[in-house]
Amino acid sequence: MASDPKTAVAVVPPKVASSDYPVIDTDPHIRRVFGYARNSDYALAGGMAATSPLAFWAMEKLSPSGIGRNGFSPIMRLAATIGIVGGLHVLYQRSANRFYGFTENKREVEMDMREMVDKVKKGEPLYGVSQMSSYLQGVAARNSRYSSLFIHVVPWANFANHDQHGVDTAKYYQQAERELEAERVAKA
């Protein structure tokens, strides 16, 4: 029996990798990845970004190429660009690993709970409003789920709002109900 792909929506459940920490999201939006990054991630990314041009400068001092100032400045711009891209890669990878539960993520779990419970209380969709059909949201989710694990080869991130993130969202609604009930009791 053939089904119309416009009406039939199959949700492919994500494979959840085993980890020592709670999984926050198997396909975090790029805004959340950078928004949840820690100061230490930004410091490491800045250090990584500075390493490349510093290494090129040190190599030029130790063993001069003799190309002169006009030849060296484009090389330094390229080295800075490589350093910045590498730094952003490290920043994204470290933050995304916390979403997947691969590294310690207590701070991010608390931030996620607060953000999602606030959205539930306001009546907003948890993962943003999407203009795509449910079918395309599923395609987007399947294409970018766990994508940061291979980001060093294929730079891919989730830019789409969809509702398939590999976690049970009931916990957000339950927490919101508890908080709303506590607020009602406090007002009475």
From TrEMBL:
Q: Which residues cross the membrane?
A: 42-59, 71-92
Residues forming the NADH-ubiquinone oxidoreductase 21kDa subunit C-terminal fungi domain are 113-186
Q: Which ranges carry the NADH-ubiquinone oxidoreductase 21kDa subunit N-terminal domain?
A: 19-104
Cited InterPro entries: NADH-Q_oxidrdct_subunit, NADH-UbQ_OxRdtase_su21_C_fun, NADH-UbQ_OxRdtase_su21_N
Q: What are the record keywords, sorted?
A: Membrane, Transmembrane, Transmembrane helix
* Pfam families in UniProt: NADH-u_ox-rdase, NADH_u_ox_C
Task: State the name under which the record lists this protein.
Answer: NADH-ubiquinone oxidoreductase 21 kDa subunit
Lineage, uppermost ranks: Eukaryota, Fungi, Dikarya, Ascomycota, Pezizomycotina
